[in-house]
Structure to design on (140 residues):
């Protein structure tokens, strides 16, 4: 009787290019947010670090950076889904001078051998100096 294998996530090492697309290593970019060495300084950087958390399967980080009013009790990430690229399409607010911001993006993935993408315009708030994901804005 053969056992179904669970697909493995691609290895992202500290020295790997950061999955978020910035020109830094994972350790110096999103990895610093994931392990608590740094906080995302803007809504866009939080969005990038959350995308990278999906890539590496860090559901704890995703939950920690989700606003408590909209955060689910838990997450079950699909181990067969491979996140393959991130495009930032636009942003409003979201800097150190703002308490709110939005980030419009498209995240690319493969699932069961098929390419796909997720489009979202995400809303973020800054509370106690920390950026948090709130929810996706509905299309106008």
């Amino acid at each position: 009787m053969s056992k179904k294998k669970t697909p493995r996530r691609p290895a992202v090492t500290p020295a790997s290019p950061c999955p978020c697309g910035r020109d830094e290593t994972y350790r110096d970019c999103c990895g610093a947010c994931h392990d608590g060495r740094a906080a995302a300084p803007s809504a866009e950087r939080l969005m990038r670090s959350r995308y990278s958390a999906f890539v590496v399967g860090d559901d704890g980080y995703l939950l920690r950076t989700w606003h408590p009013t909209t955060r689910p009790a838990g997450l079950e990430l699909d181990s067969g889904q491979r996140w393959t690229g991130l495009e930032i399409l636009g942003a409003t607010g979201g800097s150190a001078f703002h308490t709110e911001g939005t980030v419009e993006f498209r995240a690319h993935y493969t699932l069961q051998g098929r390419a796909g993408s997720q489009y979202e315009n995400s809303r973020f708030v800054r509370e106690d100096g920390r950026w948090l994901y709130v929810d996706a804005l509905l299309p106008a």
About this structure: The two ends are 52 Å apart (CA to CA). Residues 5 and 80 are 10 Å apart (CA to CA). The mean pLDDT is 92.
